Amino acid sequence: MLPAGLARDSIAEAGNQIKFLSPRARRPVNSSRMAGTAKSWQMSFPTAFVVWAFVVAAAAVEGVRLGFHGRAFFIALGIAALLFAFELFLAAPRVLAAAQRALGGRGALLAPLAPLFGVLLYSLAVTGDWKMLLFGAAYAVLPALLLASSAGKSPGTWEDYAALLIIWLPIALPVPYRLMYRVFPYPPPLTHTLSILMALSTAVAAFVLLRRLDGVGYAVAWGRGFTANFALHFAIFAAIAIPLGLEMGFLVFNPSLARARSSPLTALGVLFFTAWPEEFLFRGLLQNLVSRALKNQWAGLVVASVIFGFSHIFHAPFPNWKYVLLATIAGLCYGHVWMKTRSLLPGALVHALVDISWHILFR
Q1: Cβ-based neighbours of 270, under 8 Å, separated by 6 or more
Q2: Per-residue pLDDT of the chain (363 residues; tens, 9 = 90+)
Q3: How many CB atoms lie within 10 A of CB 115?
């Protein structure tokens, strides 16, 4: 979810990317799967490459339009492109399968080298900040080291949750304490996007390539029942959240033609840098781990949704209980889509559509 007006202190705020792009559990948790194992469509590498190239080109054009240029800007943009390629290309099922085969067992320890290389190059070539270089390097490596020590154990170990917390906190705390922003301070419109890409790449390397957690659904693929689940859960959430939000005074109906005109590029920013990362973190990892640890998918849904809700409490005015309530309801809808499809994509699309509708129609 996004705060009204796309406020800057969002846990996975879209404000900066919007501005920049437009202004092994052995036994899986039982679930009611609608899609089965076969997918009617899967993203291929060429498709992923085209999407990647378009987003990177749009970011470059917008950055130049905003007045950014020079060596530091293009190095920062190149690192963002590298991290975006790492997480997007691995969402193509055949690419992910090939990467897991190539890395094998102990070779998976090499997975964190991608985010590590990115943060080292940025710190050396853009900021020269050695303290933030050391912090960024530790951030990229520590989750993988923790998960390597829990290899062969059932999901839900303390190492799993510790790794998740290490990845989450530096991008979730209020802005003055959000350490990843200090790692990637330039250019300012790209700070949030670089921080999210660093967190997502670190989590993918640790949990998908190294830990190889089952049932995450980290794939851009579409199967039978996905469309119905997408439409149904968006409609259910809208039917609950709009009247409730208006009644509480959290939402104000204020459609904007200007915001609508920017919506295509805005939607890309929200999907890739807000919805997909949040669904991976809260559903693919947290809900997945809790469901397996408790052996109860409904308990996992509730726990992850409540944590998702409380992650929005720092939005002004603090404590924002209205936002916590609506985000918890949203988490239940997004999490139930993931339970039904065992894929991140339908829930991420519901999430993105909710945020874009909010951005265009309300404040």
Answers
A1: 2, 14, 17, 18, 352, 355, 356, 359
A2: 433 334 334 433 444 443 444 333 334 444 334 344 455 899 999 999 999 999 999 999 999 999 998 999 999 999 999 999 999 999 999 999 999 999 887 667 788 999 999 999 999 999 999 999 999 999 999 999 999 888 778 899 999 999 999 999 999 888 888 999 999 999 999 999 999 999 999 999 999 999 999 999 999 999 999 999 999 999 999 999 999 999 999 999 988 887 777 767 788 899 999 999 999 999 999 999 999 999 999 999 999 999 999 999 988 888 999 999 999 999 999 999 999 999 999 999 999 999 999 989 988
A3: 31
Identify the residue whose tokens are 């309530």.
325
Phi, psi of 253 (to 5 degrees): -70, 120
d(C-alpha 48, C-alpha 344), whole Å: 16
- Kindly report whether the global pTM for this prediction surpasses the value 0.70: yes
Q: Which amino acid does the sequence have at 205?
A: A
The residues spanned by each domain of the chain are 15-361
Helix axes 188-203, 130-148, angle to 10 degrees: 20
Contact 24/150 with Cβ under 8 angstroms? no
Of 293, 280, 295, 294, the closest CA to residue 343 belongs to 280
Rounded CA-CA distance 239/110 in Å is 46
